[in-house]
Amino acid sequence: MTTYAHFEEKQAYLSSDFGRDYAMKSFNLTLEQLEALVGRYSKGKRVGQLRGIIRWRVVTRGGWVRSLSGGFAIRPGLRYGHSIVDGWTGKLFLGADWEKMSNAELITSVQGA
Fold first, then answer.
1. What does the alpha-carbon distance between residue 75 and residue 61 come to, in Å, rounded to a whole number?
2. How many CB atoms neighbour CB 14 within 10 A?
3. Which of 27, 50, 71, 107: CA 20 to 30 A from 5?
4. What is the Cα–Cα distance from 103 to 15, expressed in whole angstroms?
5. 51 touches 39 (CB < 8 A)
6. Could you read off the pLDDT of 59-113 as tens digits, one per residue?
7. How many other C-beta atoms lie within 10 A of the C-beta of residue 104?
8. What is the β-pairing status of strands 63-65 and 72-74?
9. What residue ranges in the chain does DSSP mark as E strands?
10. How far apart, in whole angstroms, are the C-alpha atoms of residue 45 and residue 26?
């Protein structure tokens, strides 16, 4: 019997310290580059803070991932599919387009396989 991998989607606002730092680390950006990419809020409770959300997927339980070439095994803890999107419109600023790529395609793009 095959044990398939389990995935979890996570996100963080770029207005939070964690979200900003994680986006800068994941995409190798400086604060100025990130600000030029997404901009800052001009109204509301987050006025002056970075706008947008960083999204990623995490393998929560390792196992087999099906792909066109048959498939491959994966270990838990792998983070992949990072993308920065506008929180209101969902517009993709940077990274992987989840709607157009399967889990196998996203993972192999990270692993270089």
1. 7
2. 29
3. 27
4. 28
5. yes
6. 999 998 887 778 888 889 888 888 899 888 888 888 876 666 666 776 666 554 4
7. 18
8. antiparallel
9. 6-13, 53-61, 63-65, 72-74, 79-85, 92-95
10. 26
39 vs 44: CA distance, rounded Å = 14
Whether the per-residue pLDDT at 30 is higher than 60: the answer is yes
Number of separate helices (H) and strands (E) present in the chain: 3, 6
Q: Which residues pair with 11 in a beta bridge?
A: 55
Model pLDDT, residue 109: 62
Q: Determine the Cα–Cα distance for residues 9 and 16; give it in Å rounded to an integer.
A: 18
* Nearest by Cα to 41 from 74, 16, 69, 6: 16
Rg of the chain over all Cα atoms, to the nearest angstrom: 16
Q: 34 and 79 in contact (C-beta within 8 Å)?
A: no
HSE (side-chain half, CA atoms, 13 Å) at 65: 21
**Single pTM value for the model:** 0.80
* Residue-level pLDDT at 69: 77
Q: From CA 73, how far away is CA 63, in angstroms rounded? A: 5
Q: Name the strand (E) or helix (H) holding 110.
A: helix 103-111
